[in-house]
Design goal:
metal-binding, ALAD, 12 strands, EC 4.2.1.24, binds ligand PBG, alpha/beta, 40% helix, porphobilinogen synthase activity, TIM Barrel
């Protein structure tokens, strides 16, 4: 006969392990879930027919020629991924200080978007960045005057860039430049041009982070930027209240959704943004985060599939409605087998 009286004080009244004991119960109690509908897949397009160029700092990610991009987007459609974000690796000879190629309606990204939309129509959303760094010979996201990235002149260029991308068929314009007032200006430019239904996903809280390195290799802007940095427009990594001001401004200027970037080290910001505004909130698991996990997995130090799923579920737990991630295709495949 157990001595209930003696043990009463020391036994826990609440046993949280009870609900964790069996798989059925763990599934039942689960608060957050990762679904294919949460994924946005970033892709890099380059010039040339039949091209697949590996990117050494982004294992498993390639720069693709336009027909390969169309194929990759077809794969995304099949997997049920709701949207892709396409970034151009502009040929170096097209990069200039004034970034004229950004507003060329026949530039690489516009041709890629046209091809993708022609092949896949509304079965998938296409997101394009608005920022000048893929086109600038100095690697900055804006126009440079006397060593400084100027705001208003840059915004005027960004509006023209948004229009050529809208004409090409892009569904969501994603300003990633961090100039002040660009969301409002782009919204007005799109509306005046008749693109009332093209969404704006604002890179609202985008930090001057060291985690973008492999992306800059992918689009070939790392060498152009050299020892330069983007701290006069991207946010100080030390700040959190300021992120809320950025998000508030972008919403008031007409952003349909907002983004926090980078991702994993900034989940506190994702949570604050989601709690404060309750708007569609996205997070970008950026190139350096992906590279970091892949590097550890390659060495056998981490289990690739497990950390991939855990890291993405953590975004959901933090309040993100969706995640831009280079793991999107692998995750979608894995989820479809589950
Ligand atoms: C361009 C842009 C960058 C990223 C997305 N859009 C790089 C930067 O701001 O320097 C980074 C994405 C990644 O690292 O995966 N403005």
């Amino acid at each position: 006969m157990p001595d209930f009286h003696l043990n009463m004080g020391s036994y826990p009244e609440t046993r949280l392990r009870r609900t964790r004991r069996n798989d059925w119960s763990r599934r039942l109690m689960q608060e957050n879930r990762l679904s294919v509908n949460d994924l946005i897949w970033p892709l890099f397009v380059c010039e040339g027919a039949n091209i697949r160029e590996p990117i050494s700092s982004l294992p498993g990610v390639e720069r693709l020629g336009i027909s390969q991009i169309v194929e990759a987007v077809g794969e995304a459609v099949e997997l049920g991924i709701p949207a892709v974000a396409i970034f151009p690796a502009t040929p170096p000879d097209k990069k200039t200080p004034e970034c004229e190629e950004a507003i060329n309606a026949k530039n690489l990204i516009c041709r890629a978007v046209r091809a993708v939309k022609k092949a896949h129509g509304d079965r998938i959303g296409v997101i394009c960045d608005v920022a000048l760094d893929p086109y600038s010979s100095h690697g900055q996201d804006g126009l440079v005057r006397e060593g400084y990235v100027v705001n208003d002149e840059t915004v005027a260029m960004l509006c023209r860039q948004a229009i050529v991308q809208a004409e090409a068929g892009c569904d969501i314009i994603a300003p990633s430049d961090m100039m002040d007032g660009r969301v409002g200006a782009i919204r007005r430019a799109l509306d005046v041009a008749g693109y009332l239904d093209i969404q704006i996903m604002a890179y609202a809280a985008k930090y001057a982070s060291a985690f973008y390195g492999p992306f800059r290799d992918a689009v070939g802007s790392a060498a152009n930027l050299g020892a330069g940095d983007k701290r006069t427009y991207q946010m100080d990594v030390a700040n959190s209240d300021e992120a809320l001001r950025e998000v508030a401004l972008d919403i008031s200027e007409g952003a349909d959704s907002v983004m926090v970037k980078p991702g994993m080290p900034y989940l506190d910001i994702v949570r604050r943004v989601k709690d404060s505004f309750g708007v569609p909130t996205f997070a970008y698991q950026v190139s350096g985060e992906y590279a970091m996990l892949c590097a550890a997995a390659e060495r056998g130090w981490l289990d690739r599939e497990k950390v991939m799923l855990e890291s993405l579920l953590a975004f959901k737990r933090a309040g993100a409605d969706g995640i831009l991630t280079y793991f999107a295709r692998d995750t979608a495949k894995l989820l479809s087998q589950a």
